[in-house]
Amino acid sequence: MQRLDIDIYSDDQLHLKLRLELVEVLRRIISERGWTQSKAAQELDISRPQLCKLLGGMHWRTSELRIMQCIRHAGYDIEIIIKPSSKSGTGSIRVNTL
Question: Is 40 a residue whose pLDDT tops 70?
Fold first, then answer.
């Protein structure tokens, strides 16, 4: 299991880190399944040009929700848990992957 803690970043950095982690999950899925970019785009319900841009680092144009939708199309569940922070101040975001 991999875990990404995001609690010391600005809001812009937080969105960037979250997108990077989600894109890494997509890369791992595509690699593990041996998909070409065309096959991956078809399976993930995204256009091939959009997928190429996303995997090529232009992820700022794609929302976290859209990336999560692609992950869902690959057959993965996404669970979001909201709970009180154990620290005072702003809460944190964690991405756990199996």
Answer: yes
